[in-house]
Amino acid sequence: MKDRLPLQIILRAIGLALTAVGVVLIMYFSFIPGEQYPHISWIPFADKGDHMAAYAFLGFSLFIATIQIPGSGKTVRENRKPHSTLHLTSWAGSSIILTLVLGTLFGLSIELLQPFFGRSREWMDLASDCMGLVVGTALALALLNLVGSYFATRPWLYDPNWKVEDHETLN
User: Which helix or strand (DSSP H or E) is residue 16 part of?
Assistant: First the structure.
């Protein structure tokens, strides 16, 4: 079991890769001249919908990149019962705050820099960015809630400290 890759590492790698892609795409589309900006007709609310969709992707990926799954990478103390269930409410708070703060600061910096690239600064874009971050984070939490029930009954998939003799249902 020690040769397996913990779920924490897999999720963070996927989250970091998606976050990097999201940041590059957001920067590209934010700094190209306005006349070259593509019109995406299937996203509602025109420009604000584009902002919300882009930052929802960023919020989703940044949350996945910053989550800390209980038991991942931490050693278990000897006289303590191992923790083998996922509780989203107990460990997601810091990732939610980090995602919303970093995403908002990124959106703010983009809005402050846009006039240097011939684009207009719109504060409603920043509001759309923040709403998108909230939506993306909520989608990530919902997905983890759905998937979490699967992993909660299988701690050997995500907890590197898990041992067969520690699990009550397998004895």
Answer: helix 7-31
